[in-house]
């Protein structure tokens, strides 16, 4: 078979080069995408919930831009001017739906005889008084708190909302455009911070690019160095390197062809293939040199070909077996439901397969073509590795039992450590502490409501279900409940906040009407009333218009034709007006119109009495007093719920009132409700100051419990959002981790069992790996390394690579054992031959993965560290525990001839 | 609001001379027509989302011209459907050189309140019409250019491009209108967004233009937002016998008062 394959080596070479070029052309089309959304399988409920939400309420992607005035307050002419300019520039960015900040946010203002909805800053402020007015407006509505201003008024936030259905490239462009805008406004007195998931995604992509361009040359350099040290020969260095490069190009090329995006964990693929894939080429080349060295004289072309084919025949099988087990180890990650981990498993397996193929076909073909004679110039000397082997052997041969006991203790300690492992994959924590994005995230979370968003979606049965005061009141209560219970919940916003505001503004006390200087409608009023006075009757006798009936039912009847006279159809709403609105308000306001000192103290006491808790801030006290005296309608800063307090006779009237408020509010509530008048669905937005999945999980639990206990019947409540998807990914980590470990261990067990025709052999094969994994997880627990999507891959990677050591060791030990009954000598021989190769391989793989220590991402640094450590522990375990067990228990499979 | 009236109150000014009109002249003719002294209509407004779900609203509208010289109207709108906003009434009094006066009566609150809003680019009751869409633009506010003659729905039309002189005073970067030569009715208007100068919305007159009380009136229009696939149908309601739309009837000025808002009489 091999003869036929290598009959025309040129064809092999050209074919492989052509395929490589083909995949190479695909590489530029690879795109990078780290949105949490693509981490989940398409049918995952969290993903579906998010898509559904985006469809109804628009894009959930919000970038928070914070402006900090280092010298001055944001309530200053310069700050307002700057904010005005920057917001206009931000709104002009392509694919930005809106940029909302202090100057252009909707302000619902109560006036003497009505209300206004206007942008908060209508005209450019000219002087201190204008600034004072702006500040007064901002502080009058608590929805702005921690959104438009921070505690010390030094900083203000602008929320930039993207259009929906944007590609990742379009989102990236938005981010860079924002950066450019900010550059224009940056000066020595101002700081800007950009945060939010879109910014995080863009920066992950950006840092991945720099990782890839730094780490790949780095790891190639390390492999080249190791190869050079071992072969001291150009061919020995170049050929294995070419092998790994080809396999990397193929693996990434296929990803590109299939339209699979690179994610943060994909960064590891080239590093891993370079570090692992070179081994196969090394085995072939190394054996080839050994054979040539043995000939030790001038070799004819025919002999040369003979040597190469012998090499492939002899080394091919073990190399193939090693490659296969590695593929299985990595491939076990394909069982994961976390998409990047899944594709990592698939494409590293593919890459290893390619490396194997290239090592077994491409390298021999090249050697055949390049028939230049090579003679053994490589000297063997007692090097460092041999010394390590001697040390290991010298130590363990005397202390077999001690090793087993020590191993047992390590196992116990590790298990203790495992219990301490924290499972939390937080995107923002992928970045190192001192990075710009971490600083921005910290600043915004310390000063504002938070950049991490979780949404509560409330679905009612019929149109208008969400205007029911019962549900609105509970939505409002839930908001306050979450805000009070979790310090890391910065704010919860829903359309209930707007209804409360409208209710307050529409119930301004009559008291303040006459005092209000902004009442400019006087002459109009008089004009219309005087007209009215001239009319002696209140019937529109002279009108000639028709009544069209007040609903469409009438339309098809013939009534309409006859009703062309002046009678104006009477409507039924007048029943409601029996109650006098504003009774409550007038009592209270009159009571405190002129205040004696004593009454003032009484007022303070009453305010405290009506407070839900005693330790309140000054700000809260002022609000309580406002409520007490109905200052600017403060007593109506609530969901209209109590029938006695409002002119409506039944709850239905209050429900209608809410619809009417919505009709009146011309501002945009599209992102909170699905209809401007009779919404059947609503969204509550929870802003969190932390992306911790543990927090998200707790909040989701609280929401679900609150809803069960308090929400009226007939509403379906669910959660959605990037934080929810991040939590879903997090919840998949453990199952994905366990699945891949179990699958790979079982497969290793099966492969080793088949190899030795013995299940006991299979168990021995699994032991060193299990030991190494326990230590790995123990280290994670004790050193606080979080189990995240990257570190969850360590186990599968370690098994995939580490199984080779066990297989190699067992095979050699078995061969030696068949020839020799002195187990001490068997062990020593095994260690001297295979042991050396194992250590050599483990060191080169560990060194390769160690380049990840220089990654921009914390999880990849951890991954590199853990894989490197595990390489050392699993190779050492293979060479210590394994012989100790074999020598202690003397299992039959190892001493009997196979078959 | 005035645009509703514009759309529905279009009197045919017979133009014998059709040659060498400029875009501006066309738009002036559209603007300068006698629009009747009063109008009364029962209108349906259906909001249709991208999935085809329909939300229906019904409103009755009265308007009178209270200042003929300045072409100023008083308008009362009363919602009939959906039930939750039944009898909610708007009163708008147009003013020259200052903001219009607006009042609203919320029956559930039992109060009339003055409202003010400078957010003309906001949606009118959740529809694809903005408040500004419902208002007419002064001919002088745009540069008009006659692009070509075209046929639309079987009508011979002038196609006029209107670009705002001051972009900040407009919600669109440009509008292209198809004006019928026969009735001087805009039967199709394309509105382009400011940011990307891409087509945002299209207003189309469906069905034929009818002559009601001597006035050519498009009775069924659709405003479609082509970027969001959301659309709004605005039409005059009616039965087999007639359309619920009448012009030039006598309407009492008392109807346009705060007292009427509150009491409905």
From TrEMBL, chain A:
PROSITE patterns: SSD
Gene3D superfamilies per the UniProt record, alphabetical: Multidrug efflux transporter AcrB transmembrane domain
Record key words, sorted: Cell membrane, Membrane, Transmembrane, Transmembrane helix
Residue ranges of domain SSD in the record: 242-369, 762-888
Annotated region described as Disordered, given as residue ranges: 509-585
Cellular localization per UniProt: Cell membrane
Membrane recorded as keyword: yes
Membrane topology classification: Multi-pass membrane protein
One Gene Ontology MF term: transmembrane transporter activity
Transmembrane segment boundaries: 9-27, 212-231, 238-262, 268-289, 319-338, 344-369, 403-422, 738-756, 763-783, 789-807, 838-857, 863-889
Pfam families, A to Z: MMPL
Chief location of this protein within or outside the cell: membrane
InterPro entries, per the entry: Acrflvin-R (IPR001036), MMPL_dom (IPR004869), Mycobact_MmpL (IPR050545), SSD (IPR000731)
Biased composition (Low complexity): 535-548
Bias-annotated ranges (Polar residues): 549-564
Biased composition (Basic and acidic residues): 566-576
GO cellular component terms listed in the entry, alphabetical order: plasma membrane
Keyword Transmembrane: yes
Name of the protein: MMPL family transporter
Source organism per UniProt: Candidatus Mcinerneyibacterium aminivorans
UniProtKB/TrEMBL annotation, chain B:
Database matches in InterPro entries: TP_0789-like (IPR033399)
UniProt keyword terms in alphabetical order: Lipoprotein
Taxonomic lineage of the native organism: Bacteria, Candidatus Macinerneyibacteriota, Candidatus Mcinerneyibacteria, Candidatus Mcinerneyibacteriales, Candidatus Mcinerneyibacteriaceae
Domain Uncharacterized protein TP-0789: 73-263
Protein name: Outer membrane lipoprotein-sorting protein
Highest taxon in the source lineage: Bacteria
A Pfam family matched in the record: LolA_like
Source organism: Candidatus Mcinerneyibacterium aminivorans
Record-linked Gene3D superfamilies: Lipoprotein localisation LolA/LolB/LppX
């Amino acid at each position: 078979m091999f003869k036929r394959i290598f009959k025309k080596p040129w064809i092999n070479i050209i074919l492989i080069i052509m395929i490589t070029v083909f995949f190479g052309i695909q590489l530029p089309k690879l795109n990078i995408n780290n949105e949490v959304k693509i981490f989940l399988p398409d049918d995952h409920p969290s993903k579906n919930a998010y898509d559904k939400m985006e469809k109804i309420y628009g894009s959930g992607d919000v970038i928070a831009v914070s402006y900090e005035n280092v010298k001055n307050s944001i309530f200053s002419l310069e700050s307002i001017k700057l904010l005005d300019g920057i917001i206009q520039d931000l709104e002009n960015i392509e694919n930005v739906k809106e940029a909302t900040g202090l100057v252009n946010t909707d302000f619902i203002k109560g006036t003497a005889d009505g209300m206004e909805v206007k942008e908060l800053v209508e005209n450019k402020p000219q002087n201190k008084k204008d600034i004072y007015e702006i500040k007064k407006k901002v502080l009058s509505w608590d929805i702005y708190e921690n959104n438009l201003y921070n505690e010390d008024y030094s900083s203000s936030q602008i929320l930039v909302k993207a259009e929906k259905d944007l590609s990742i490239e379009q989102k990236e462009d938005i981010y860079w455009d924002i950066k450019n805008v900010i550059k224009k406004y940056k000066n020595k007195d101002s700081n800007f911070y950009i945060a939010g998931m879109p910014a995080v995604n863009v920066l992950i992509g950006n840092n991945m690019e720099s990782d890839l361009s730094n780490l790949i040359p780095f790891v190639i350099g390390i492999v080249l160095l190791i190869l050079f040290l071992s072969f001291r020969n150009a061919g020995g260095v170049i050929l294995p390197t070419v092998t790994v490069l080809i396999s990397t190009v193929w693996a990434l090329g296929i990803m590109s062809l299939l339209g699979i995006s690179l994610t943060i964990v994909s960064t590891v693929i080239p590093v891993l293939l370079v570090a692992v894939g070179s081994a196969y080429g090394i085995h072939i080349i190394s054996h080839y040199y050994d054979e040539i060295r043995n000939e030790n004289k001038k070799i004819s072309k025919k002999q040369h070909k003979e040597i190469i084919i012998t090499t492939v025949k002899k080394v091919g099988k073990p190399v193939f077996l090693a490659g296969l087990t590695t593929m299985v180890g990595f491939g076990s990650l394909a069982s994961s439901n976390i998409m990047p981990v899944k594709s990592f498993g698939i494409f590293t397996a593919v890459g290893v397969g390619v490396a194997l193929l290239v090592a077994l076909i491409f390298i021999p073909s090249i050697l055949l073509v390049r028939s230049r004679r090579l003679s053994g110039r490589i000297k063997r000397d007692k090097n460092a590795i041999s010394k390590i082997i001697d040390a290991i052997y010298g130590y363990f041969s005397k202390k077999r039992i001690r090793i087993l006991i020590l191993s047992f203790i390590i196992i116990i300690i590790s298990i203790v450590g495992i219990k301490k492992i924290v499972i939390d994959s937080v995107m923002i924590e992928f970045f190192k502490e001192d990075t710009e994005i971490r600083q921005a995230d910290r600043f915004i979370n310390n000063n504002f409501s938070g950049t991490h968003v979780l949404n509560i979606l409330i679905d009612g049965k019929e149109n208008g279900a969400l205007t029911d005061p019962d549900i609105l009141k509970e939505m409002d209560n839930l908001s306050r409940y979450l805000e009070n219970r979790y310090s890391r919940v910065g704010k919860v916003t829903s359309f209930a906040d707007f209804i409360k505001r409208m209710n307050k503004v529409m119930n301004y006390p009559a008291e303040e009407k006459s005092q209000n200087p902004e009442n400019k409608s006087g002459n109009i009023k008089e004009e219309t009333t005087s007209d009215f006075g001239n009319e002696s009757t209140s019937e529109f006798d002279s009108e000639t218009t028709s009544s069209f009936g007040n609903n469409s039912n009438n339309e098809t009847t013939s009534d309409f034709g006859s009703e062309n006279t002046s009678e104006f159809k009477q409507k039924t709403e007048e029943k409601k007006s029996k109650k006098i609105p504003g009774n409550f308000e007038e009592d209270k306001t009159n009571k405190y119109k002129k205040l004696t000192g004593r009454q003032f103290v009484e007022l303070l006491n009453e305010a405290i009495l009506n407070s839900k808790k005693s330790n309140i801030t000054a700000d809260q006290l002022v609000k309580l007093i406002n409520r007490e005296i109905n200052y600017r309608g403060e007593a109506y800063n609530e969901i209209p719920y109590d029938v006695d307090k409002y002119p409506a006779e039944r709850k239905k009237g209050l429900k209608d009132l809410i619809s009417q408020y919505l009709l009146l509010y011309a501002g945009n509530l599209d992102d909170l409700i699905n209809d401007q008048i009779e919404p059947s669905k609503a969204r509550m937005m929870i802003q969190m100051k932390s992306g911790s999945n543990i927090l998200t999980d707790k909040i989701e639990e609280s929401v679900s419990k609150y809803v069960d206990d308090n929400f009226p019947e007939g509403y379906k409540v669910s959660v959605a959002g990037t934080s929810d998807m991040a939590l879903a990914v997090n919840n998949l980590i453990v199952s994905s981790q366990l699945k891949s470990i179990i699958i790979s261990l079982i497969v290793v067990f099966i492969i080793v069992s088949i190899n030795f025709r013995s299940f006991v052999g299979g168990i021995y094969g699994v032991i060193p790996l299990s030991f190494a994994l326990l230590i790995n997880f123990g280290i994670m627990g004790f050193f606080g390394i979080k189990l995240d999507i990257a570190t969850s891959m360590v186990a599968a990677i370690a098994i995939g690579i580490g199984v080779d050591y066990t297989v190699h060791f067992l095979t050699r030990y078995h061969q030696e054992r068949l020839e020799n009954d002195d187990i001490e000598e068997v062990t020593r021989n095994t260690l001297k031959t295979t042991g050396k190769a194992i250590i050599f391989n483990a060191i080169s793989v560990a060194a390769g993965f160690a380049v990840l220590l220089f990654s921009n991402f914390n999880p990849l640094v951890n991954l590199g560290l853990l894989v490197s450590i595990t390489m050392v522990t699993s190779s050492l375990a293979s060479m210590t525990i394994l012989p100790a067990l074999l020598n202690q228990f003397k299992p039959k499979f190892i001493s009997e001839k196979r078959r | 609001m005035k645009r509703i009236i514009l759309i529905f109150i279009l009197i045919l000014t017979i133009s014998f001379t059709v040659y060498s009109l400029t875009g501006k002249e066309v738009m002036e003719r559209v603007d300068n027509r006698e629009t009747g002294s009063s109008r009364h209509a029962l209108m349906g407004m259906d909001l249709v989302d991208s999935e085809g779900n329909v939300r229906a609203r019904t409103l009755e509208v009265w308007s009178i011209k209270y200042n003929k010289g300045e072409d100023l109207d008083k308008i009362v709108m009363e919602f009939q459907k959906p039930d939750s906003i039944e009898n909610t009434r708007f009163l708008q009094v147009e003013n020259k050189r200052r903001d219009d006066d607006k009042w609203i009566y919320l029956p559930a609150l039992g109060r009339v309140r003055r409202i003010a809003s400078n957010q003309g680019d906001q949606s009118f009751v959740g529809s694809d019409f903005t408040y500004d869409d419902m208002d007419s633009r002064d001919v002088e506010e745009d540069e008009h250019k006659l692009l070509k003659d075209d046929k639309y729905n079987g009508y011979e039309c002038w196609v006029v491009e209107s670009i705002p002189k001051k972009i900040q005073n407009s919600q669109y970067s440009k509008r292209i209108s198809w004006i019928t030569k026969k009735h001087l009715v805009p039967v199709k208007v394309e509105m382009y967004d400011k940011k990307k100068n891409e087509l945002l919305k299209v207003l189309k007159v469906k069905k034929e233009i009818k002559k009601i009380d001597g006035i050519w009136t498009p009775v069924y229009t659709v405003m479609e937002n082509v970027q969001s696939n959301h659309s709004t149908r605005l039409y005059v309601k009616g039965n087999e016998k007639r359309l619920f739309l009448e012009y030039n009837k006598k309407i009492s000025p008392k109807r346009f008062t705060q007292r009427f808002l509150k009491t409905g009489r």
